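The following record pairs a protein chain with its ligand, molybdenum atom.
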Amino acid sequence: MTEKNPRYKNYDHPAGGWGAAAATAKVLLEQSVVTKGSRALLAMNQPGGFKCPSCAFPDADCKKTLEFCENGAKALAHEATKFRVTRDFFAQHTVAELMEKSDYWLEMQGRLTEPMRYDAATDKYVPCSWDDAFALIGRHLRALDNPNEAEFYTSGRTPNEAAFLYSIFVRQFGTNNFPDCSNMCHEPTSRGLPPAIGIGKGTVVLEDFEHTEAIFVIGQNPGTNAPRMMTHLVEARKRGVPIVAVNPMPERALIRFTEPQDVVQMATFGSTVIASEFVHIKIGGDLALLKGMMKVIFEREAVGETILDHEFIATHTVGMEQVRDEVMSLQWADLTEHSGLEEAQIRRCAEIYIRSRATIICYGMGLTQHQLGSQLVQQVANILLLKGNYGKPGAGISPIRGHSNVQGDRTVGIDEKPSQSYLDRVRDVFGFEPPREHGHHTVESVEAMENGTAKVFIGMGGNFVRAIPDTDRSYVAMRKLELTVGIATKLNRGHLVHGKDALILPVIARSERIETSAGEQFVTIEDSMSNVTASRGVIEPASADLRTEVEIVCRMAMAALPDSKIPWESYIHKYGLIRDKIAEVYPEIYADFSEKIKEPMGFHLDIPPRRRVWCTPNGKANFLLLPGLEVNSPVDDPTMLRLATVRSHDQFNTTIYSYNDRYRGVYNDRMILFMNKEDRIARGIEERAHVSLETISNDGLKRRVDALTVIDYPMPRGAIAGYYPELNPLLPLDYYDRVSGTPAAKSIPVRVVAP
Ligand SMILES: Nc1nc2c(c(=O)[nH]1)N[C@H]1C(S)=C(S)[C@@H](COP(=O)(O)OP(=O)(O)OC[C@H]3O[C@@H](n4cnc5c(=O)[nH]c(N)nc54)[C@H](O)[C@@H]3O)O[C@H]1N2
Ligand SMILES: Nc1nc2c(c(=O)[nH]1)N[C@H]1C(S)=C(S)[C@@H](COP(=O)(O)OP(=O)(O)OC[C@H]3O[C@@H](n4cnc5c(=O)[nH]c(N)nc54)[C@H](O)[C@@H]3O)O[C@H]1N2
Ligand SMILES: [Mo]
């Protein structure tokens, strides 16, 4: 982008449709990969092809020839781009100069091509051989006084094979310091659900969408972040299934959607109304909505109706009475005040839930990223228990995960709080004693960098410094490190905010072919609904000097642990050997992995609640109590606004594809604030004025972001929204859910200050 020409206008068409088709063509053109990209698109999410690198939503069977979406196409086009970051590029720019560039500019430079090492004398990255790179990593790791002085980050694109070996290498090295992107994302699901239903994953599979009688979509923007989910919402809607969308933003695709794959709808400019009930919730008001719905249910039971699944509750659950008593003690005035909804609407939502014999509740970051996010997720589990919505067709809880393999990475060991039984199996299978004490999650790893106890940071994918809270403070923390390593496909800010030594190690991407001395290899991915499938890249690697994530892990292990008896070298060539080890460590779910993965559509990992089996300490599903109506600490300041940091339609997390956000009517600008008009007028702000935001906190630190343009937008009073990662400087590091460690990125208390 050369010149900024911001435009804001209402978007009143359906989402999807020709706009999505045009955007797909445009991004292929921009990245100059029309032929290669179109060919690759045909192999995406097809048996024998590769898994879309974008979101974690599962694929349907092969009925649809093009099982991809506009945003999957963007992710692929940016991966298959013809642009390259070469040694000449690094010779031309100092790191200080690159720091001046935008995230968008860095992304647009293209794919990394060879390993680079930071040279302090010139402030430039210079070429470095792979051997030297691993030697440097080995030297730094072996020099540590304590293995807990290293932090091993994982982002969720890393496939199972690499993540599994990484978890073994790091544990043999001696630490459980596994900060990962899940810590900022669905950790409230991973930590909140096990005490409730015995597993930290969803219980729904795609087929359930065909049998469900009601769908709730809470705090999630599927039209942008899980577009393949739209097909299932459209089909359910066409069957007359009520869909309740709960969101402070009337996200376009939740209101009206045209399926780009529906030929008739495309030809006739038709569309489907998605939400039969749009619930315009206050930020953090979901708890009051859920409790209000439960109150309606209990009230009606009390006067003689049979709504609860009594048999299920008696056989399978514990703790319903205490939840009922707490909910019944709440007043309607408080429920409406906290949710920002009318009592009548809460009653309508309850009615939809009551009438449905099989309900699915989907949720995303709007639910997890609050200070009590884990407990909020448990309330979703509670309401589903009331009507036995587990272990029957068409029903269940459905966290919609983010990164394409974030769920898989956790399953195969990326976990800073591993269970003792898992560690026992690692010991038995690999013959070393793994560390038993818990390691650092994301926030704790930054604290360790700040106080100087962390010395080495290895980033397996991702863009850590841009994803984490408190940007300015996190930059200072990262710069104290002795060594930072970025294992990546693209140049990002994480490579520029670096330690005294620093490496950029470029990898083969998801869509690219993996050839080893043992022939072509494939990797595996676990999607949001626990299906494990093979992924085989189809295009040539962006450069001959890229390595696979598997090889990088093995060679780091060989460099750091020269005496290790684990056959790292053999894993580099034969991924089947890795899968055999996964099967040994996880016999309950991964037995016969190498056989089962031969199925074209892969296989499903066992989810015990689908069989009404509860792997909790008491063997029951537990109703869990969260008293009151707050999911964030109240702030005693009348000027306070709650800020939700969200994704635009043209970004993948910290990767900015363009400055547009079509469905919200924003063009060429990301420094904007979506605000209710009355809130704007009450503050004496002109429409489209530039303002600054300041975080309200009592830790004495000033957090401020300037030059934000205010846009009138149908937000509830008191709620504002803006874009992640630009607004991360406002998110305090210690503003997070204590159960999961997840930063409360959807409810930052802020005030508007004069520019
Ligand atoms: N194209 C694309 N796809 C992606 C991603 C991407 O960046 N781009 N990111 C991937 C990742 S890692 C993830 S985790 C997912 C994220 O996918 P989503 O969960 O959809 O993520 P967000 O855009 O952060 O926010 C979701 C919604 O929460 C709403 N919200 C904010 N506060 C509240 C609240 O208090 N209550 C309720 N009910 N809603 C609220 C916002 O208005 C927004 O619509 O998507 C994945 N897929
Ligand atoms: N304020 C605020 N902060 C948030 C959020 C929010 O909603 N609000 N969301 C949080 C969430 S849900 C998440 S998941 C995190 C995301 O945090 P991360 O996962 O750390 O960030 P990404 O932007 O997804 O990482 C992008 C980088 O990954 C690298 N990459 C891409 N593909 C591959 C690959 O195949 N292999 C390897 N090795 N590298 C690859 C590229 O170099 C690219 O620059 O951010 C969190 N931060
Ligand atoms: Mo995420």
